[in-house]
Amino acid sequence: MSELADALDDIQDALSRNDWLAAGKAHTKAGQIFLARNLYQEAAQHYQEASNLFDSIGENKLMARSLNHLGICLVMTKDSDAALDHFRKALSLLENSPDDALAVAIWGNTGLAYSNQSDHKNAIKAHKLVLEAAEE
Questions:
Q1: Which of 111, 125, 124 has the alpha carbon at shortest distance from 75?
Q2: Do 30 and 7 touch, CB atoms closer than 8 A?
Q3: For 3, how many CA atoms within 13 A lie in the half-sphere containing its CB?
Q4: Which residue stretches of 3-119 are H helix?
Q5: What is the pTM of this model?
Q6: CA distances from 28 to 15, 17, 24, 32, 70 (A)
Q7: pLDDT tens string 99-133
Q8: Can you list the pairs that 62-66 forms with residues at least 24 positions away whose Cβ atoms lie under 8 Å?
Q9: Considering only CA atoms, which of 19, 20, 21, 45 is closest in space to residue 31?
Q10: CA distance 38 to 12
């Protein structure tokens, strides 16, 4: 069975057991597979589902990670406004559950979203935050 089929089976299995954490992780895995195949809309759907599931059980770091990946999918499909909304939400979730590496990744992706909008001033600000973190 393919890796994608396994992930989709894992989603159904976890949902049937009402195991929202496992279902969220399985949606994340499916999102990763679709993202690797440049199937951004399909990946975005799975990352959105993962985010919703993680939100329902208060898993802020996992939700922030899912929102970051969802934002990446949106940047790739040129929906930078929506991507920026997801990046902002992801960063706000990390205020109470710090994860410096994830925050740096989100800031880098935020810079890409601003760059897609030709908002170079904000893109530079976001990328400077990434560089400052790298220097620490």
A1: 111
A2: yes
A3: 9
A4: 3-16, 20-36, 40-56, 60-76, 80-93, 100-116
A5: 0.93
A6: 14, 18, 6, 6, 10
A7: 989 999 999 999 999 999 999 999 999 999 898 88
A8: 62/24, 62/25, 62/28, 63/90, 63/93, 64/89, 64/90, 64/91, 64/93, 64/94, 64/97, 64/99, 64/102, 64/106, 65/28, 65/90, 65/102, 66/24, 66/27, 66/28, 66/31
A9: 45
A10: 24
Amino acid identity of residue 47, one-letter, is Y
Q: Which residue has the tokens 């979730």?
A: 93
Question: What is the C-alpha separation between 50 and 29, in angstroms, rounded?
Answer: 9
**Cβ-contact 63, 95 below 8 angstroms:** no
CA distance 35 to 70: 10
CA-based nearest residue to 26, from 42, 38, 10: 10
Cα 108 from chain centre: 13
